[in-house]
Amino acid sequence: MRELINYRPIARVVSVLLVIIGVLMWTGVPFSAYYDEPTQPLLYAGVTTLVAAGLLWLISHRKKDGRTASVAMLSIHKREGYLIVALSWVAMTVFGMLPYLYSGMLPSVPDALFETVSGLTTTGASTLTDIEIQPRGLLYWRSLTQWIGGMGIIVLTVAILPLLGIGGIELFAAEAPGPTSDKLHPRISETAKRLWFIYVGLTVLEGFLLYFAGLSPYEAINHALTTMATGGFSTRNASAAAFSPTIQYIIILFMFLAGVNYTLLYLGIKRRWSEVWRSSELKAYVGLIVVLTAIFTARVSYHTEDTLEQCFRDSMFQIVSLITTTGFVSADYTSWANSLTMVCFVLLFLGACAGSTSGGIKLIRHLVFFKNSYLEFKRLIHPQAIVPLRLNGQIVPGRIITHIFNFLLLYLMIFVLGSVVLSILGLDFITAVGAMATSLGNVGPGIGGVGPTDNFAWLSPEIKLFLSFVMIVGRLEIFTVLILFTPYFWRLN
Amino acid sequence: MRELINYRPIARVVSVLLVIIGVLMWTGVPFSAYYDEPTQPLLYAGVTTLVAAGLLWLISHRKKDGRTASVAMLSIHKREGYLIVALSWVAMTVFGMLPYLYSGMLPSVPDALFETVSGLTTTGASTLTDIEIQPRGLLYWRSLTQWIGGMGIIVLTVAILPLLGIGGIELFAAEAPGPTSDKLHPRISETAKRLWFIYVGLTVLEGFLLYFAGLSPYEAINHALTTMATGGFSTRNASAAAFSPTIQYIIILFMFLAGVNYTLLYLGIKRRWSEVWRSSELKAYVGLIVVLTAIFTARVSYHTEDTLEQCFRDSMFQIVSLITTTGFVSADYTSWANSLTMVCFVLLFLGACAGSTSGGIKLIRHLVFFKNSYLEFKRLIHPQAIVPLRLNGQIVPGRIITHIFNFLLLYLMIFVLGSVVLSILGLDFITAVGAMATSLGNVGPGIGGVGPTDNFAWLSPEIKLFLSFVMIVGRLEIFTVLILFTPYFWRLN
Ligand SMILES: [K+]
Ligand SMILES: [K+]
Q1: Structural domain for A242, as ranges
Q2: Which terminus of chain A faces fewer neighbouring Cβ atoms within 10 Å, N or C?
Q3: Which residues of A touch B450 (CB under 8 A)?
Q4: How many angstroms separate the Cα of A111 from the Cα of each of A115, A469, B25?
Q5: Is B337 helix (H, G, I), strand (E, B) or coil?
Q6: DSSP bridge pairs for B394
Q7: ipTM of this complex prediction, to 2 decimal places
Q8: Of the ligands numbered here, which is closest to the C-alpha atom of B226?
Q9: A187 belongs to a structural domain
């Protein structure tokens, strides 16, 4: 009889992750050295992380029942899958905040934890009040946490979550096998390799473009890392408002690409355009950006004295930034008009395509809702008829529709409950809903006291810890985290 | 071959409704006479309405295909059912606002229309800035519109909507047959008679209790009419805050009863208590009120200098008033604390039991959501197992779960879109979401500029017309109204 949960593969995966984290910390050391900053924080944080990884490896490698564990031999079932996902994020957070603590850049644990979770979840909300006076090596690490988190989330949503049956995403992960078996499929590593290639390639490409457009290599690298992760951490206090129009347009383009399903990006690279354009989600994504940009441009140019080009650029930048949940800011969208503030708030709930690094609900789920709502009227008129929902030409089973609807409702329910918690912790109405929406959707800026020109530094430690948990819940598509708190998870039947 | 829509039964039903409306207008004439006010407005409005009813009757009674129509012979199908519901509300609104217009109490059409729709939908939001200086006879008519609307809604939700398959309410309407046939069932009239008896009985009982507790007969009648409708129109500017504790407790009791499913009230009258207590929705309803009252009492007593009894009474009154969507006010809930304002805002989305006069989403739908969410985790862990959702011991079919979820999401979507529209029409964030939530949920008071101590008089005519439409959409459970705007409705296949 097998145990309920086999902890050895979990320890193994986490230990491998920590090795990656530790080594990546060291990639910041050259920046620290170049800018004449202390190199110890990143160096020692890397050492600590690698030692911990080694210890975990030893534990996971112990002989058991006379067998040594090898990755191929390890049987990873659903329960282990959930725990790997959750514990990976916990472990990355615990060790990821060491540079902030060691350096004294963020000496308090709630601040350092918030900044790290905000990085790894690609949220981009910050507790730093003045970014430009911070050590460059540490800011690079801060950007890198987002890039690591972005990579993690692609592997998670394209390769792992569909196997766990989370969020109905088997629908849009054409590359991944359906959740027919309890065992995770070995094809994960093959898919992951392909995604890795696209992710790294686009990051490098954007970095070069930003550099040629005038950014320093350091800033080009930082912003390339946080754009492709739809993270939104910047090395400037004014975020992208500090940059030239050309740079802003480059960032818009790569935010857009970062919001596309990686399966489609892969098909695009292979020039299989007809398959790319079959995607209803991509059409919705492009259409939404076009329509909203037109409306915003008209409204903003009516409101300000700026040139039409600037109105267009500011509108498109903010819309793409919010829909992709990147959270870069090139203009204060809460200063435009009541109605545009309201629309921007609603955009916090959209998210771009599933299988991208973007957070939030994702457009595919909204599509399923809109299509089914329309069909529901047909079902009312013709109660005897069978009216199936089709997406990209395929019938979506009722069970998956229910699951997606349940996700949508749970998402909104958590938003509401979290807003109540934040108001109990002292926030006013607008700041509470703004902070909750932007944290759960992994966007970054919100409305009210956490608007695009504010930061999260002024919030109480309790609020920072609470929002850190919320960011992880949002990033891991809710079910992955909450399932650990149900009795079903901890008993065999 | 039959026509797509048979308009004769629709005209017939509307004409009967208008006769009732016209005659009921005249019941306000004695009040006008008693208080030395002009009697013409109500008198002439009644005449106009009855003349219109007569004309409609003649049209519906015309011979066609050599047959005269008799109600028994008329074949009412789904399409006619939807149109009857929608057009009834339109017709009642058009004629219901005549007294306001004829008297000059609300001389502008948007104001008169808003007040009438707010009455008939049992919302209770008002455009009157000073209620106490208004003619008594007209205020009686204003209260009566709510009572008429409340009666209409019970017949609708218990007897008609289940036949149309709207909102998954066949679930909780134990008395109504399922939507198996396209033809409306003749048992409607029998069920309606029973509901009518309970509704009238409780109204009379409350009226007497309020009178014995010290209200004038006039005020006792008015508040009994608007309590049982969960309407919330008052004859006092201060609403229920103007009354003694005893009267407030009586109103709490009857608001509570008005929020109970009428099928359960019927079983209660028959003393079939075991069947009453089997209802999960009733348990949730009672439990929610008890828990929230305890929390609010503690928080309010911490915040104010009031006696514990007053804190308890104020808390319970506001909670029962909001959950049942009555909207009477005995204390300003937005003045207590950020967190309680937020919770009160959330309460605008609850609604009491289905099959009562309360508006909003209704607890049964929330129950289905909560139960299914929990089961969804079980389904994730055991993907091969069939995990059905049970309510009151019965399995809820997947199709109905999907329909209920779709209702919930559509409700929230309309709330969001409506808030955007209101912000475009000039309202600030909090007032927009407050006005939208309270109108869609047929509650009455909101937050922000339409809080419990404010009214809707200051809003622009466009906003008043828009909110009138929203109140009707909310009251008729969304699908009933929106289906008229789909192509499916207007073509045979
Ligand atoms: K972000
Ligand atoms: K009401």
Answers
A1: 7-252
A2: N
A3: none
A4: 6, 13, 66
A5: coil
A6: B391
A7: 0.90
A8: 2
A9: yes
Alpha-carbon distance A343 to A332, whole Å? 14
Rg of chain B's alpha carbons, rounded to an integer? Answer: 22
**Which two tokens mark A226?**
């946080």
What one-character DSSP code corresponds to residue A157?
I
Q: How far is the CA of A359 from the centre of ligand 1 (A)?
A: 7
- Classify residue B212 by burial, with Cβ atoms within 10 Å: 0-12, 13-18, 19+: exposed
Identity of residue B79: R
A479 contacts B420? CB cut-off 8 A: no
* φ, ψ at A389 (rounded to 5°): -90, 130
DSSP string, B151-214: HHHHIIIIIIHHHHTGGGGGGT-TTSPPTTSSSPPTHHHHHHHHHHHHHHHHHHHHHHHHHHTT
Cα pseudo-dihedral A43, A49, A54, A59, rounded to 10: 170
Q: Nearest CA of chain A to the CA of B246: how many Å?
A: 32
The region of weakest confidence among A268-282, A358-372, A453-467, B15-29 is A268-282
Please name the residue of chain B whose CA is at the shortest distance from the CA of residue A299: B424
Q: Which amino acid is at B225?
A: L
CA gap A432, A478 in Å, rounded: 20
In angstroms, the Cα distances linking A174 to A178, A276, A394 are 9, 12, 12
pLDDT at B343: 92
Q: Which residue has the tokens 């005269």?
A: B68
Q: What is the pLDDT of residues B124-160, one digit of tens each?
A: 999 998 999 999 999 999 999 999 999 888 777 766 6
Q: Which ligand is nearest to the CA of B121?
A: 2
Instruction: List chain B residues with pLDDT less than 50.
Output: 1, 69-74, 171-185
3-class DSSP assignment, residue A485: helix
Interface test with A, best of B83, B181, B336, B339 (most A CBs within 10 A): B339
Which token pair is A380? Answer: 């009312």
Q: Which two tokens stand for residue B142?
A: 């204003």
Backbone φ and ψ for B64, nearest 5 degrees, come out as -145, 135
Res. A160 pLDDT band, cuts 50 70 90: low
% chain A with pLDDT above 90: 56
Chain B, nearest residue to A343 by Cα: B420
Q: Are B42 and B116 in contact (CB under 8 A)?
A: no
* CB contact at 8 A, A196 and A158: no
pLDDT in tens, B232-279: 999 999 899 999 999 999 999 999 999 998 888 888 888 888 888 888
**Which residues on chain A are in Cβ contact (under 8 Å) with B162?**
none
Q: Is A399 within the bounds of a domain?
A: no
**Closest Cα in chain B, distance from residue A427 (Å):** 7
Question: CA-CA distance, B433 to B345, in Å (whole number)?
Answer: 9
Which ligand minimizes its atom distance to the CA of B445?
A: 2
Contact A435, A446 (CB under 8 A): yes
Counting one residue from A and one from B, how many pairs have CB atoms under 8 Å apart?
Answer: 146
Tell me how far apart the alpha carbons of residues B433 and A103 are, in angstroms, rounded to a whole number.
Answer: 45
Distance from CA of A429 to the nearest CA of B (A): 7
Q: Are the beta carbons of A206 and A250 closer than 8 angstroms? A: yes
Report if residue A423 sits inside a domain. Answer: no
CB contact under 8 A, B406 and A432: no
- Mean pLDDT for all residues in chain A: 87
Chain B, nearest residue to A408 by Cα? B409
Residues whose CB falls within 8 Å of the CB of residue A61, separated by 6 or more in sequence, listed in order: A12, A68, A69
Q: Which residue of B has its CA nearest to A165?
A: B380
Q: Which candidate, B145, B174, B144, B148, places its Cα nearest to that of B159?
A: B174
> What are the chain A neighbours of B400 within 8 Å (beta carbons)?
none
Closest among A257, A85, A253, A260 to A172, alpha carbons compared: A260
How far apart CA B259 and CA B281 sit, in angstroms, is: 11
* Domain presence at residue A211: yes
Are A429 and B338 a contacting pair at CB < 8 A? yes
Total domain count, chain A = 1
